[in-house]
């Protein structure tokens, strides 16, 4: 019983009823304007009015703002589960205009039917209750002792009207989603935009994780070592490394913030002839330039200063590596070195970078510390499944390559292979 009565008591039902009645009132106004209802039967009025009114409705649907007005009203009164299911934007093409026209015609027809029932239903219930010979929908019901039970039909008439409104409101909502909602092309464009923004957020998250995470790791290690050693010369060297690492981290942070501020608008600086604007634009480009593998020596020096010996061999011919692979390669090696400093401080680090058979191959390895578990055991290292390794795998997959990480013969080995042709 509660499930039957709940929709009749819901505020949503009455909001949708109001939306239906607005359509009915609008249809009635149109009939009174042309051809008028004085001295004419319903059939004559409909025959003469429908062609003209349909033409006027279709014509009004060609106004782009009409679709937006109907969408806003439908959102407010039909109460969809998600507002984005009903668009509140002007028509962008003829497909939107035709869908708006169908919506307006369907709304008028459904609203007219519900409006008529909303008037006739209570009138019939009233007749059943108070008149000796009630008139129900234009038909006279004879009185008499045999029909004394007819007043009991009044609640049933109101109950039926309530459920008519419930189902008509639901049907109106389905029509609004289908005819006022985004078209398939618009849904596809919105999905592509969401995917693009998600990729951008992932890129920014990886950049912040790699650069800031590396800087914090080096800073913590240097500060701890300086406090433990207590030597003034060592402390001065540690502070120098911390300062340099902090400067590079600030540069990386500025590059990331520049990407966040970048709206994609490009102006033609040459037209203004303002040398200052051109200089600012050049500075902005410098800020956006991400480090490549040519910056790896400084990274290795930072790791050595943190107490971990680094033995690196970079076998990449000049100009052979595309820019995107150079930048992504730097971030991958940076993450590998950062992990080595974090989980195996003081252990030697071995880095190999080479181009073979049309592929860029990167390998970063370090000895496992005694507390990391037995070599080669699954899950022996706390690094497995971390955000940094997940980011490396994402970078490799986006470039058409593959990445692997795990314990091998007493070492933690990170290996990445990426084809050169997909990095161009």
The percent range for helix content is: 55-70%
Distance between the termini: 67 Å
- Element order, helices and strands? HHHHHEEHHHHHHEHEEHEE
Enumerate the spans where pLDDT stays under 50 for 5 or more consecutive residues.
144-149, 263-288, 373-384
The percentage of residues in β strands lies in: 5-15%
Oligomerization state: single chain
The total strand number stands at 7
Query: Given the helix and strand composition, which structural class is it?
Result: alpha+beta
Rg to the nearest angstrom?
A: 37 Å
User: What strand line-up does the widest sheet have?
Assistant: 3-4-5-7-6
The biggest sheet, with number of strands, parallel, antiparallel or mixed sense and barrel status, is: 5 strands, mixed
Shape: elongated
Average pLDDT confidence is 78
3D structure, described in words:
This protein is of the alpha+beta class. The chain is built from 13 helices and 7 strands. Strand 4 (349-356) and strand 5 (359-367) form a beta hairpin. It is elongated and about 105 Å long. Residues 144-149, 263-288 and 373-384 have low confidence and may be disordered.
Give keywords.
single chain, 424 residues, alpha+beta, 5-stranded mixed sheet, two-stranded antiparallel sheet, 13 helices, 7 strands, 10% strand
Summarize the structure.
The protein has 424 residues and is an alpha+beta fold. The chain is built from 13 helices and 7 strands.
Please render the helix and strand layout as text.
Layout: H1 2-9, H2 11-33, H3 42-61, H4 64-78, H5 94-130, E1 135-136, E2 139-140, H6 153-180, H7 184-229, H8 232-261, H9 269-272, H10 275-288, H11 296-305, E3 310-315, H12 323-343, E4 349-356, E5 359-367, H13 387-398, E6 402-408, E7 411-419
Helix pairs in contact: 2-4, 2-5, 2-6, 3-5, 4-6, 5-6, 7-8, 7-12, 11-12, 12-13
């Amino acid at each position: 019983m509660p499930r039957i009565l709940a929709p009749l008591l819901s505020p949503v039902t009455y909001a949708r009823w109001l939306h239906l009645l607005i359509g009915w009132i609008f249809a009635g106004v149109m009939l009174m304007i042309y051809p008028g209802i004085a001295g004419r039967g319903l059939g004559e009025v409909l025959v003469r009015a429908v062609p003209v009114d349909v033409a006027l409705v279709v014509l009004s649907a060609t106004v782009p703002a009409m679709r937006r007005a109907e969408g806003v009203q439908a959102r407010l009164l039909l109460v969809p589960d998600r507002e984005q299911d009903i668009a509140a934007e002007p028509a962008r093409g003829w497909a939107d205009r035709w869908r708006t026209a169908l919506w307006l015609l369907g709304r008028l027809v459904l609203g007219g039917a519900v409006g008529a029932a909303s008037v006739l239903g209570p009138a019939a219930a009233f007749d059943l209750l108070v008149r000796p010979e009630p008139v129900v929908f234009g038909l006279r019901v004879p009185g008499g002792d045999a029909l004394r039970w007819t007043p009991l039909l009044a609640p049933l008439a109101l109950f039926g009207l309530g459920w008519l409104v419930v189902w008509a409101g639901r049907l109106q909502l389905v029509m609004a989603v289908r005819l006022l909602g985004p078209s398939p092309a618009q849904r596809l464009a919105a999905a592509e935009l969401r995917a693009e923004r998600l990729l951008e957020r992932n890129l920014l998250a990886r950049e912040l994780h790699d650069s800031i995470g590396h800087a914090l790791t080096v800073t913590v290690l240097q500060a701890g070592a300086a406090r433990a050693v207590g030597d003034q010369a060592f402390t001065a060297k540690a502070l120098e490394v911390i300062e340099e690492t902090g400067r590079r981290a600030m540069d990386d942070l500025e590059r990331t913030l520049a990407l966040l501020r970048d709206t994609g608008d490009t102006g033609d600086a040459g037209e203004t002839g303002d040398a200052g604007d051109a200089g600012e634009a050049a500075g902005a480009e410098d800020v956006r330039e991400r480090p490549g593998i040519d910056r790896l020596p400084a990274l290795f020096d930072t790791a050595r200063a943190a107490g971990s010996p680094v033995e690196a061999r970079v076998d990449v011919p000049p100009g052979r590596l595309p820019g995107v692979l150079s930048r992504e390669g730097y971030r991958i090696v940076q993450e590998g070195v950062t992990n080595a400093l974090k989980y195996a401080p003081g252990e030697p680090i071995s880095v190999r970078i080479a181009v073979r058979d049309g592929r860029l191959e990167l390998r970063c390895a370090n000895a496992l510390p005694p507390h990391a578990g037995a070599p080669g055991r699954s899950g022996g290292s706390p690094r497995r499944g971390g955000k940094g390794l997940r980011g490396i795998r994402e970078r490799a997959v986006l470039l058409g390559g593959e990445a692997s990480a795990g314990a091998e013969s007493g070492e933690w080995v990170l290996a990445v292979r990426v084809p050169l042709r997909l990095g161009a």
